[in-house]
Amino acid sequence: MRLVGRLGLGLSALLLTGTAACAKGPTVQATATAASVEKPVASEPQPVATDDGAPKRDTRPVVSTQGVAGWIGTAAESEAMLRSTRETVLGVWVDVPEGRPRVRPPLDLALVVDTSGSMAGGKIESARTAARQLVQNMEDGDIVALDTFSDQARVVIPPTKLDVETRPEILRAIAALGSGGSTNMFAGLTLGESHMASAPATHTVRRVVVISDGIANVGPSTPEALGALAERGLRFRSQVTSLGVGGDYDEHTLNALAIRSAGRLYHISDPREMVGTLKHELELMTGTLASDAFVEVMPAPGVQLLGADTMRTEMGENGSLRIPLGPLHGGQHKEALVRVRIHDMRSLEGKDSRPLASVRLRFRDPSDGDLERIQETVARARLTDDPAVVRASENARTKAIAAIFDIAKTQIQVAQSINQGQFVDADRELAAAQRKLEQQASVTKDEKEKSRLSQAASSVATQRSTAARAAAAPKSVQRDEALKMNRAAMDAMGF
To answer: Tell me, which fold does domain 106-286 have in CATH?
Structure first.
């Protein structure tokens, strides 16, 4: 049994991420299921409170997920395939409408703070300030826990419902946070995940927020071990948000926490940025329109699914593929590339296009009793002997997703080149990436995707300039540039 309530009750604890803004693809029409037959419903915006308590008009529309249609889309790289082709990719995307939920979902949040010796000074002070403002901005009825880790991990605040009596007690506990010792991140994350394992059904938006400035050096410390621990939270509908503070944290580990749990990653150059980052994270969580979301891809006869690039996937029955997404907030966009192999090309013969896969979006509606919603669309293709027909039938969004993901992989490689002082190699890789983006933008007919690719190319050009300047800068500046590059890659992949 989980103990949620006054701080004095204690806890018997178990020790155990898009976002690119893109337009919908023009060639694929979503097919609504029985649970998905209407347009999203908007109502009048309501007043909200600012930080100083003064009312401010929230101009975002209220979005109801009752009868939603059209969030999910898919398309093959080209709707026409050469008969000699055996493999292709499917672009899969989820576009959540801008807006806020009809009913604000109650939150269950575990804040896991690194209190090792390297956090002394401005870092722990900023962590205390950020945690305090986070708790102040949460609503009565939300659940919050506070765990710390150094040589060992400890529960500072057990999962506690916020109210007029518990909030001051929690704030006093936050104010007393100190620093000292090593970095046992595994133990700290274990505590945070244990809280999520016993979260009440009433609180469907669940998040473990990890703040760390260092490299795990006590207990299991590899990205694989920590990523696997973060992945367990998906069973309890929990994701990990990681705040990497300064220039000494291990980006490989924090990347793994975000990717394996469908969570998020933030790079914090200045510790004072923690306050704004946690405020932004809270806004995303309270704007959740769908929870426990995942994409299910079902192959057509004669088609085999090979996996999805940049995303954690699970293989299911009958060769299906499951891509966990976690909670989805208003205005969010998630994308994936699914690799497929066609074993029986005869299944694509005929004048009309034939199905390659059914793609379904499944999620729970936190505003409507956690009711499941389902949407479905189908990726199709047809055979041809003319390469010109293949080029003319290319899907602009799927091609753009592929190009952006290729750039993200390059950015992660470039970040490591900068870490190693290999700035000539970094510039060469970025220059090649910029040319690829510009070339793809030049042949893309869809204006929205053309603009997206052009903006990405411009961003890479800026990164080349800053990386070149960093070559003559101190090591700390070079490291910060590498971490910013890594963050840009994770952002491009939706984390």
So the answer is: Rossmann fold (3.40.50)
Q: What is the pLDDT of residues 40-65, one digit of tens each?
A: 333 344 444 444 444 455 566 776 55
First-to-last CA distance in the chain?
Answer: 33
Torsions phi, psi for 30 (to 5 deg): -70, 140
What's the pLDDT score for residue 120? 94
CA-nearest of 82, 29, 93, 76 to 399 is 76
**Contacts (Cβ under 8 Å, ≥6 apart) of 386:** 80
What secondary structure does DSSP assign to 241-267, as a single string?
A: EEEEETT-S-HHHHHHHHHHHT-EEEE
| Calpha distance 197→236 (Å, rounded) | 6
CA 171 – CA 136 distance, rounded (Å): 8
Question: How is residue 101 written in tokens?
Answer: 């939920």
Give me the chain's average pLDDT, please. 86
pLDDT band, very low/low/confident/very high, at 18 (cuts 50, 70, 90): very low
In which residue are the tokens 């800053």 written?
466
Per-residue pLDDT of 82-106, as tens digits, reads 999 999 999 999 999 998 888 899 9
Q: Are strands 100-101 and 87-95 parallel, antiparallel or unpaired?
A: unpaired
Name the architecture of domain 65-100+288-385: Sandwich (2.60)
Q: Give the Cα separation of 284 and 205 in Å (integer).
A: 11
Contact between 333 and 22 under an 8 Å Cβ cutoff? The reply is yes
> Considering only CA atoms, which of 353, 461, 397 is closest in space to residue 95?
397
Cβ contact 433:464 at 8 Å: no
What was the pLDDT predicted at 246? 94
- pTM for the predicted model, two decimal places: 0.83
**Number of Cβ atoms within 10 Å of the Cβ of 322:** 16
Alpha carbon distance 293, 329 (integer Å): 11
> Using CA atoms, how far apart are residues 420 and 478, in angstroms rounded to an integer?
10
| Domain definitions of the chain by residue range | 65-100+288-385, 106-286, 397-492
The string of pLDDT tens digits covering residues 207-260 is 999 999 989 999 999 999 999 999 999 999 999 999 999 999 999 999 999 999
